[in-house]
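**Entry details**
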Amino acid sequence: METLSKGSRVVAHSTNGGKPIHLFHWFEDGELRTTFEGPSSRDGNTPDELVPLLREVGFPLTSEGEHDESAPDVDRKAAVLALAERLTGIRVTESLIRDATYELGLVPEQPAEEWTSVVVDITDAPRERLHRGWTYEEMATASDRVRAEANAPVVITYNEPPTRDRSEHETDE
């Protein structure tokens, strides 16, 4: 991500399915600024820079960035998506996810024998849920298609009628 974020900003949030692992990473111009699993235990080159924003999106933190026992619980997925929106200016909406083009890749070795699919499961602040899954076979098919397209010759087309054969052209001679 350091290379990808050179001259730019990259925000990533990942979760491990139903397991309680939720990771957040903020890279800025090739530097890991802040990363955390739980927002009260941050790391990176500027781990406390996001504390005011973390509090603003609802994470239960004190102004010093410690866990605030008196604060109400928050939907962590909704809060981290709000954080990503504030950092990037991009709001994750149902239409954004539904209409997006997804580029999928196939990991050469499956991470686990029981691995069969990837699921995007998001519940937004108004509690509207978006759930979309891809099977291993769908991902393998998409990956094969993209690989074949990448190896295919590039064809450039224009919105012009096809050119007629030279003998079919009318001449004024």
Observations:
- The CA atoms of residues 22 and 94 lie 21 Å apart.
